[in-house]
Every structure is written in C-alpha cells, then in structure tokens.
Amino acid sequence: MQLKEELTLIQRGNRTITNYLHIVKTLADEIAIINQPLSDDDLTLHILHGLGADFREIVSPIRAREKSLTFEELLDLLISHETYMRRLEAATQQLVISTNYTNRIKHSFSPHNSYSPRRFNKNNGQSRSPN
C-alpha cells in the first residue's frame, strides 16, 4: 500500500524528466516484485499525473492515444519536450537580454540624458556650459 501511495502522489517538481521517471520506474518495479505489476497504461497515467503544468501541452495528446506507450517511448517523448522547453526558455532569456541592452543604448544617447554626444564640444571634448 505504501508503494502504491508513493506512486500515486509523486510529483516531478524541480527534478529533470530523467530523474523523475527513474524514481517512478523504481517504485513500479518494487510493486512488480510483490507480484502486482502495473500495466503500461497505469504507469503512463501515474507519470502524466505528476508532471505538472510545464508539460500540459504534451499530456493531452499522450492521453488521447489509442495505442499504449511503452515506458521507453514515453521517456523519449518527455525528454524531447523537456529539451524543447529549455531551448524555448533560453531563446526567451536571450531576447530579454537583447531588448534590455538595446533599451540601455537608446537611453544613453537620448537628448534628455546628460551623457548625450550633443552636449560635448567637438573642438576639445569638454562639456559646454549650459549658458
């Protein structure tokens, strides 16, 4: 009963997919040892239930499949999705960094900024007096 409860309640949390599925598979194997093996469908449902919101895009199509997935097939799909999400997150972070850098450059050369190139005398590089 304890192993089944752990399997029912397990959540991915901050774990990688590989780590999460390793833990789930270990619990399922321990349950099988006591002569109550899980079907592929039951194992898939336990895994999908604990994935969390980050994987909701892929959970629905997996649940809608007519043919059961093996553990290895499910592992491959989830690792691919995790890799896709990491690339997407990295691209988003790069876009934010680029946007912030561009905004800083624009701000540095704005006419209202004291560092504007227009406020310097071309002859000697000295600041012009405001008068």
Quick recap of the structure?
With 131 residues, the chain is mostly helical. 63% of the residues lie in helices and 0% in strands.
Computed Rg: 28 Å
N-to-C span? 86 Å
Total helices: the number is 5
Average of per-residue pLDDT values: 82
Strand content: under 5%
- The amount of helix comes to 55-70%
Q: Tell me, what's the shape?
A: elongated
Residue windows where pLDDT falls under 50 for at least 5 positions: none
SS content category: mainly alpha
The biggest sheet amounts to: none
Number of strands: 0
Helix-strand pattern, N to C? HHHHH
Structural summary, described in words:
The chain is mainly alpha-helical and 131 residues long. 63% of the residues lie in helices and 0% in strands. The chain is built from five helices and no strands. Helix 1 (2-9) runs antiparallel to helix 2 (17-33) and helix 2 (17-33) runs antiparallel to helix 5 (71-108). It is elongated, with a radius of gyration of 28 Å. It starts with a helix and ends in a 23-residue tail after the last helix.
Topology, please?
Blueprint: H1 2-9, H2 17-33, H3 40-49, H4 56-64, H5 71-108
Keywords:
single chain; 131 residues; mainly alpha; elongated
